[in-house]
Amino acid sequence: MATISTASLPDIVFMLLFFFMVATVLRTEDEKVRLIRPEASELYKIEKKHLIRYVNIGIPMDRRYGTEPVMQLNDAFSSPEMIQDWVISERTTLAESEQSKMWVSLKVDQDTKMGIVTDVKQELRKASALKVLYSASSRERTGTIEE
Amino acid sequence: MARRELTEINAGSMADIAFLLLIFWLVTTTIESDEGIKRQLPPPVPPDIDVPQAKEQNVFNVKVNFLDLLLVEGEPLDIEDLKDKAKDFLIATGDGVMSHPVGREMVGRNREVVLVTGSNGKTNAAFPERVWVRKADVRQRIAEYEMFVSTATDENRRKNYTKVLQKWREKLTTITLLGGDFKELPSSALISMQNDNNTTYNTYLQVQNELQSAVNELRDELAVAKFGRTYKELEDLYDRNADDKALLSKIVAVRSVYPQRISEAEPREGSTYY
Q1: What SS3 state is found at B59?
Q2: DSSP B200
Q3: Do B226 and B255 touch, CB atoms closer than 8 A?
Q4: Is B185 part of a structural domain of the chain?
Q5: Which of A57, B106, B113, B240 has its Cβ near the most Cβ atoms within 10 Å?
Q6: What strands lie across the sheet with A131-135, from one edge to the other?
Q7: Is B27 an interface residue toward A (CB < 8 Å)?
Q8: Comparing C-alpha atoms, which of B84, B90, B85, B66 is closest to residue B74?
Q9: How many domains does the structure of chain B reveal?
Q10: Selected residue of B27, B34, B203, B204 to mutate for chain A interface (largest A Cβ count, 10 A)
Q11: Is residue B72 part of a domain?
């Protein structure tokens, strides 16, 4: 009985590997701030990911930029006053029919003080970007008993 | 120099190497999750407009100070108790009557549901006054607005009347679906949260989460009792099939008994000490 040649197996696996490497959409921008997201139970998942824009808030990874929480828009540190311009430019990247459906996901480190978050929220309001998502990782609801 | 015979390299282990790489990739790749608590921020308020104050009893005040301590309705409270307190506020009817007609206790998959009893019986001024939505009244309103729509001469007016008519029709469907008259939260009733600039984000989010949890649990409870499915299941089903009008009216019914009324107060200047 002839054995099946396994010589092409590596090729197949490599192909799988390459497929995964290419198809995995890693975040295009890297996080420049330390982000440990808080845990919450009442989570909502946005299905249409292309509608989401991210605002990161936390302590800079690179200590040279200080130890106070800062805001990161796209790839750079920024100040809350920049939000309005940013919202306008991000809106133009969406189709006209979807511009009002834009979500802003606030990724905030759990130890951040609310001051900067409130500033960002106020600017978002001024820019009429009212749909926000407080990004969180999932946990069980408090007080639930396993069935 | 002796020439060695050129032998084929054994490629048998190549697959193993590739697998190893593949598994490494699979394990280390963290797929970005886009989950969180969703909120609709209030639209910006023009500086020259006075926002009317809601009645004190219609507002559930949650304040968080710079030490991450909670002050709920003027009293210090542990965050563990916040959900129950918020639920009390949302279900209170003042007269001990349920906010919705009470149904069976055994529902769906033989799961016993402890229905919210309206026995809080508190008639004090700390709770909002839910208003009856009665079938006869709603019918009368519908008839009125149907007449308004048919006799309206102005196109704009007709549109507005149609909108109102739609609202009343929704209420009628809600009554039918719930199997009786229900009590509605007054439109000014809301859960208001205020925080300090030095409140930790984690605490802020936990408070938001507990408040949301209160609304969601009440909705789930009602949805399971009336329709045999949790509210989230109903929403997920509707997400998959947006043409299902019957499903939508079930969702609307649950929402009209327990509306989402979590608002964030305007931030104050400077640090506040509660």
Answers
A1: strand
A2: B
A3: no
A4: yes
A5: A57
A6: A44-45, B35-40, A131-135, A103-108, A52-58, A70-73, A76-78
A7: no
A8: B85
A9: 1
A10: B34
A11: yes
Domain residue limits at A118 = 39-138
Six token digits for residue B179: 């199997």
Q: What Å distances lie between residue A74 and A82, A95, A111, B110, B225, CA to CA?
A: 12, 19, 22, 50, 46
Which region holds residue A66: left if phi is over 0, alpha if psi is between -120 and 50, else beta? left
Look at residue B151 and tell me whether its pLDDT is greater than 80.
yes
Q: Cα distance from B137 to chain A (closest Cα, Å)?
A: 36
Measure the CA–CA gap between B257 and B107, rounded to whole angstroms: 19
A51 and A101 Cβ atoms separated by less than 8 Å: yes
Residues B86 and A145 sit within 8 Å (Cβ to Cβ)? no
Contacts of A118 in chain B (CB under 8 A): 195, 197, 267
pTM of the model: 0.78
Strand bridging mode B59-64 / A131-135: unpaired
Q: Which of A4, A12, A42 to mutate to test the interface with B (most CBs of B within 10 A)?
A: A42
CA B248 → CA B71, B173, B194, B220, B239, distances in Å? 37, 11, 33, 15, 10
Here the CATH number for the domain that contains residue A56 is 3.30.420.270
pLDDT digits (tens, 9 = 90+) for B28-81: 766 666 789 999 888 887 777 666 666 777 888 898 988 989 988 888 989 988
- Has residue B100 been placed in a domain? yes
